[in-house]
Each structure stands twice: as structure tokens, then as C-alpha cells.
Amino acid sequence: MELSERITNITAGGSDGWDTFYRARRMIADGIPVTELNIGEHDIRTHPDILNAMHSAALGGHTGYAVVPGTDSLRSAIAGRIQARTGVPTTAANILVTPGGQAGLFAAHNAVCNQGDTALYIDPYYVTYPGTIRSVGAVPKAIITTPDTAFQPTRAALDSAAPGAKSLLINSPNNPTGAVYSRATMESIAATCQQHDLWLISDEVYDTQVWDGDHISPRALPGMAERTLVVGSMSKSHAMTGSRVGWVCAPEHVINHLINLATHTTYGVAGFVQDAAEFALGQGVSVEETVAAPFRRRRELSLSVLAGQNAVRAVPAQGAMYLMLDIRATGLSGEGFANALLDAEQIAVMPGESFGAAAAGHIRVAMTIDDDRYVAALKRLVAFASEMVEQ
């Protein structure tokens, strides 16, 4: 008997981009100390007050089946946050609570893509994007960006790819590049979607991590609320990665159908976890700023370490918890450099090729360990690259 083509084709028969990460974890399991700069996991844990709220909710009995769309109070809290940040009228009816942002991406593509539809996404991209599109039976098609435009998609590239497509997936602030899409870029995206009748799926999980520029949700642009599905999450904003609380914000009729999908797949999110998320949102923006602060600080530390040398060049990091580094001066691919660095220095980074063709010759560094260890590791990385350039 054979498995379905849909399940066996999620990675298109190739790598899922995590090979170097898995190799680093095997080294750690074998007792080899590895400095991990490869995964977007906060070095601080979920705040004890949030955990206490989760504990109290569980002890209080909120451990049975929760309402599938999400509790009314959490949906209202998420809607209030979105309305406050974007100015777009938003109610609980516009929100579906999901088990994390990844489940939200899957749900959103299920909502707008039929079998065989072309679904666009921007390259470089988060590693799961093409697989998520394939998992709903759609056909992924990349729109290539370049370092010359700071990895922001151009109107020409968008319009060239759009004919015949059904949807477009964007991510700003962007993982892996750190690009924060400008208003001009967002207006180009909106114009392309309207001209070619595309659904827009906007992954905004890093909306609290903006170091340069402003976060613009395309749902707030004229004519876009009715064709935009926004994916959000508590993972990055509140250091709740393991709690698996995300959402889709969309027109009410879309949410009604997504509730049917959730009923037949996840059947909701644990009630005590939702209560903790509601508590966390109720603490206001100060909590989000506290969670984001280490990455803002490490971005500045990174620029100091990288100054005055030519072996490693930083792509302007406007947001998110990552630094994209151009290592083409070493003569190695991103994958080759990442593996050589892991062998020689026991420092684990993600190869740029894990995030698409546009990121070839780059590596992604996650700024997710304490300042002193981070600076020391980055200095070792630069010294390693400099030796290669000098050879």
C-alpha cells in the first residue's frame, strides 16, 4: 500500500532545511558542547506570572474541551490588541484561536486554496512555507527578492508572478532576513493583490520585534481587510513558544469556515492555556517590550562586532530575533560555511539555503543566547570567516 501523494510530497522529496540543526543536536546528544545560534527560541522562559495564571486555570477546572473557535474572552482580547495596533475595527468574530502560528498558516491556506492552485510566497522564507502550501494540495511558487532591495519584493516581481495565482503569503518583520516591509512595499503588495484578485496571508508573528521602521499590517490598507488573513502568535511576543497559542484574523465568513476546519482537525486549544494567553495580553505592551529588549540590544552588539571587517557582512536587520549574514567572501555556500563552522568551532547556525534560493551564500544567526556568550560566539564566527578570506 502507498501513502498519499499529499503527505509524501510535503518536502517535495528533498530536505526540509533542518539538516544542520539536526546534526548539531546529534553532537549535543553525543556530549559535544555546541553553541546554538540556529533556532528562534528565547533564552528567557515564559514569565512565572503567566505560568501561574495557567496553573490556576488548570487547577480551577479549565481542563476539559474548550470552545473550538477559542474562548470568547481570549478572542475578544486578541481582537482588541489587533484593533489597537492597526486601527482596523476587529471583533471576536474575526478571530480563530489556533495551536500556534504554524497551525494558523495551515488553516489560512486551507481556507483560500483549492487543490492545484498556485500559492505565492516570498523568497527568502521561513522553512515551513512551501511545505505548508503543499500540505493543502496547492502548488508553491516563490517570488525572489535580492540583497540589492534589502530583500523587499518589488512591484515588478509581484506582478510577474501573480497571473493565475490564488494567494500570496508575506512575512514582515521577516524571518530570516529581518526585513521590515516599508509602506511603499506594502502598498505594492496591496495593489498586486487587488489587481490580480489574490488572497493575502500575512504572517505577523514578529510584529513586536521592530528595530528600524514601522510595522504595517496590510489589512489596514484601503480595500485589503476583506481579502487579508493575518496570522499571529503568542510565541515570539510573550516567550510562549511551547504553549502553542496563535490565531487567524480574517473576515467573519472566512472564520466561520475555519471553525469547521478546526472542529475536524485540532478541536481547539486547551482552555487553561488560553486563559494564560488572555492574562498575558492583559499585562499590556510593557511585557512585549521586555521580551523584545534582548534582541534589540543584541542587534546593536552584533553591529559593533561586525564593524571594521569584510569577511562577514550583515544584511540590515530591521526586525525579528535574527541576523542574516553574507558570507560569500569566504567562497563557501551558506550550507558549506555552516557545516565547516560547526565542525571547527562547534557553533551552530542555519544555512541561508534552508530559506530559499535568494538566501544562498548567507547564514542566519539567531540572537537567542545571553549577551556575553553571543558576542563571544559571533567574534569566533567572524574570525573563522576572516581566516578563510585570507587564505
Automatic annotation (TrEMBL):
- Record lineage: Bacteria, Pseudomonadati, Pseudomonadota, Alphaproteobacteria, Rhodobacterales
* Protein name in the entry: Aminotransferase
CDD domains (UniProt xref): AAT_like
Enzyme Commission (EC) number:
2.6.1.-
Protein family according to the UniProt entry: Belongs to the class-I pyridoxal-phosphate-dependent aminotransferase family.
Keywords associated with the record: Aminotransferase, Pyridoxal phosphate, Pyruvate, Transferase
Tell me, what is one Gene Ontology molecular-function annotation carried by this entry? pyridoxal phosphate binding
Q: Where is the Aminotransferase class I/classII large domain?
A: 34-380
**Catalyses which reaction(s):** L-aspartate + 2-oxoglutarate = oxaloacetate + L-glutamate
* Matching PROSITE patterns: AA_TRANSFER_CLASS_1
Indicate whether Transferase appears among the record's keywords. Answer: yes
Q: Which GO terms describe its biological process?
A: amino acid metabolic process
EC category: transferase
Co-factor(s): pyridoxal 5'-phosphate
Transferase listed as a keyword: yes
